[in-house]
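Here comes my example:
=====
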Amino acid sequence: MRKIIVATFTSLDGVMQAPGGPQEDPTAASRLAAGPPPTSTRRSALPWVKSSAGPSTCCLAARPTTSSRRTGPDEFGVLIFAVVLGKGKRLFGDGAVPAGLKLVKSQSYLTGVIVANYEPDGEVKTGDFQLAEPSKAELERRRNLT
């Protein structure tokens, strides 16, 4: 089976940024931000592409989807640029389906760009950063909160 990798360019605040600039998407809310053009005409074509033989396929996403493993991408490549654009098309948008993702590879560059690759990882997993046994200082801090 073919692996589908969806790549997208975003600002640090999650606004889609086209690699070629704002002229790539005249509908963008900001003159700085633009959504990369999709290279596939329909998301509904993904199951067919995935089931065909051949090498992995990478495409730019106008807005990636977090749908099921069967119909959605196998991997997300997110290029995060060290800028804050404030407004524009958001990476997943308001209709995103909650989904867990697992970081499988990351690379940072001297330009400030971070490339992070994620694979779908089932349901959203919640947790905390709490130590198994809180320190005496932490127990004291908690007592002082009440």
